Amino acid sequence: MNLKSIVLLSLVIIIMGYLLFIFITPIKTTRTIKSSPQSINIDKEQIHRTDKVDEVRDTIIKPFTEEPFDKKIIATESKNINKSNSKQNSLKVIKQIDNNQNQKLINDILRLIKSSNKPIAKNDAVNHDELIHHPNGNIKKVSTPNETRTYHGNGQLKRLTQRYEGKLHGEERLYFENGNLRELITYINGNKDGQQKHWYVSGKIYEITNWANNIKNGDHIIYFENGKIESKEYFINGKRHGGFKQWYQSGGIKVQAFWNDGKKDGLEIQYYENGNKKWEAIWENGILDGQAVKYDKEGIAEFDESIFLSYLQKTQEKDGHWSCQKTDGMAGHDNDLVVTSIAILSYLGAGHTDKVGKYKHMVKKGLAWLESQQNEKGFYSNRIDHHSICLMTMAESLGMSCKVNKLKIEKAIDLLLKLQNIDGLFPSTKNKKSYPVTATYFTVMSLKSAMVTEIKVESIKESFQRLRNTFKERDARYFEAKKSFSSSLVHGFESQKKLSLLEVKVHDPWLKDLDNNSYIATVLTINCLMRQYLDESSKSIWMKKTNNVLIDMIEDRDFSYHSLGMWSLVLPSFQFGGKLWDLWMSIFSKKIINSRELYGLEAGTWQPGSQGYEKQYGRIFVTSQLKLCLEVWHRYKSVTNN
Fold first, then answer.
1. What is the spatial distance between Cα 223 and Cα 600, in angstroms, rounded to a whole number?
2. What are the residue ranges in the chain where pLDDT is below 70?
3. What is the CATH number of domain 305-640?
4. Is the Cα torsion angle 500, 506, 509, 515 positive or negative in sign?
5. 140 and 131 in contact (C-beta within 8 Å)?
6. Residues 411, 414, 420: CA angle, nearest 5 degrees
7. Domain locations in the chain?
8. What CATH class has 130-294?
9. Considering the entire predicted model, what is its pTM?
10. Which of 105, 53, 607 is nearest to 311 (CA)?
């Protein structure tokens, strides 16, 4: 036997003797681990079985990992678990150690007890409270008291969360499957604090949010993947405050709004990508102030007539009439007649009658008041234009099956027909002192409404024929010179004497305050409109000449903006089509829509002018005229029955 064999045999004998000593000597002892602020007792029998490994680990390791200490006595148990399920074990008491040895001892203990758990993947830590695997065997989740890691199926880290005393503390990181960072946020004692960042899968920044004690504070910015800002807003104590902007990827502005203490406050505008407005509104303390305005891609705003009808509801007097003075017009009974008639027509045009619709009670009261203003002779007013406007309202009400007196309407029509001049024109008053074009214009409109309602049809046809004959007879003298007219045709005088525009205008209560060019243009459009009501073709010589003159005047900016002029222009333009209609749409249509009141009590209405008939009749008259301009596409046929 050589020396090597002798040494090996000696070692075997020593080991066997040691093991025999362990088996025959009963061990029933307790070791105490000193750990501030508490002591932990470990009983030998408590850790004898293999299914107590997790309990032993928590009992022994927790004091080292959760609390600082200067010196500790650590008891470690070494288990020798083999294939025959041997219950042999050993316990060793380790002497006092300094802080720099703590971590090494912890690792030694973990290595001793890990044999009772499942095999651990290479990317997993040995210190874990929970271990979950994907079906492919890769680690899915592993947790320790202070950290949790989750993994994608391909083995890439998915989420890393840090904790302290059971609360999120430190960085939390999320990753895409390709390994790129997806999100980064810092926690302090369970609360988000500092910047939170998100990235696209490509690695480009997507979002930055600022937090303070788990409340949003500061800028919140979102980016397109190309690096341009998509939106930017600001938070104070978790509430939006200040300006908000959003952009298209091309760089154009998309939304611009303002917030105050978490509520929208002020102007908000949304845009199409071509730069035109898409939506607009004003907010006050989170509440919409007035109406929101929608625009098409060409920048033309849509008209919501319900806002105007709501305005009429709010401004109607208890007895059923509307006050001209209270709606930005001038005081006077005649003015109230006009405004009340126009208000009722606005309701009728929207399909509301005294029996049907949301505003049926408004219509019923208004008609009752208006009918009560007709005197015994049949006049609503001594002014023929005012009388005609009231008659038009009553005739259309009857045509929509409202409860009104047909005999009174017929009486009002007879009075007008008796006042018609031999040349077909109508006077401004009963005394026949003058024949302004506007008097004939309003009379023709009221008689046409009566014809559609089938009242006095034959008598009205005869009246219209007299007017047609006059138009046809005098057509040749309408254009003696460009923008010059025969006084008998413009104003209604039977004399062929030439009059200056000033002499002609002064007799017209509606148009006298217009500048000369606007007066001429309005007279032309009014004559066009009357001829359309009289069924004259747009291809007639006079109509063609008028079309060309109106195009020139609009292009030369000789046609000023006023409500009656717009209404008398839109129908001829609609019928002529072509260039005149294109000019109307590109110039006046946009101007009408964009000049509306958007906010407050007057939302959905138009501000009357500072002089002339707009100042006299106020907001309701002006709004009704401009509202009709925006309804010409369906309104025209219902009025003309053509």
1. 37
2. 1-5, 7-8, 12, 17-128, 290-291, 300-301, 303, 473-504, 558, 633-642
3. 1.50.10.20
4. positive
5. no
6. 150
7. 24-116, 130-294, 305-640
8. alpha beta
9. 0.61
10. 607
